[in-house]
Design goal:
189 residues; mainly alpha; Four Helix Bundle (Hemerythrin (Met), subunit A); two-stranded antiparallel ribbon; 4 strands; phosphoprotein; HAMP_dom; HAMP domain-containing protein; two-component regulatory system
Length: 189
């Protein structure tokens, strides 16, 4: 609720009179005075500019304002909060899987739908696929290092991971062939 901005003044005869004070004002970018509604809209605009620049900590701080402006401020704050939550989770998963090597990380964002959910789900699919591929490669290369040449990489893969899979499987097959020929050579001697 806005204050009524009543101020005590004296008329030219020195009698007390009540006069409505103009709404609180400040100067805009163009140097002109802004009224309260304009300042509220300016606050919303500043948050939108901050979000556009990647600052998801910005919030509209115009207090409890009734009506459409208050609803817009609340919605902007909710959207910014969702952006911050989804962004933080995606950043965490990317850091854990991509930088720290913590396979199996998944983004967890409650109460999202539409594009937010699609984005979260796609990050989780990406992290899950990478985890499965790396773990399968690790199982096979560990087996080879321990002398077990019976394993093959079987995980579905595309692109450079597919090339790595095929190269390792070819290497294991060549080692297996070499080991067989060495055993045959020893048994014929």
């Amino acid at each position: 609720m806005q204050p009524n901005n009543i101020a005590a003044t004296k008329d030219k005869n020195g009698n007390g009179a009540s006069k409505k004070k103009p709404p609180s004002r400040r100067r805009g970018a163009d140097g002109n005075h802004l009224d309260v509604r304009e300042m509220q809209l300016q606050a919303i605009l500043e948050v939108l500019k901050a979000v556009k620049a990647g600052n998801f900590s910005a919030r509209v701080g115009i207090g409890e304002v009734p009506g459409t402006i208050g609803q817009i401020a609340d919605e902007v704050n909710d959207v910014v909060q969702q952006l911050q939550t989804v962004g933080s989770e995606i950043t965490r998963v990317a850091r854990e899987v991509g930088t720290e090597g913590k396979l199996g990380a998944q983004a967890e964002v409650q109460g999202v739908s539409g594009t937010w959910k699609d984005l979260t789900d796609n990050v989780n699919v990406l992290a899950g696929n990478l985890t499965n591929q790396v773990r399968n490669i690790a199982v096979v290369t560990t087996a080879v290092a321990n002398g077990d040449l019976s394993k093959q990489i079987t995980v579905e893969a595309k692109g450079e991971i597919l090339e790595l899979k095929n190269t390792i499987n070819k290497m294991v097959e060549q080692l297996r062939t070499f080991a067989r020929s060495r055993r045959r050579g020893r048994s014929s001697s």
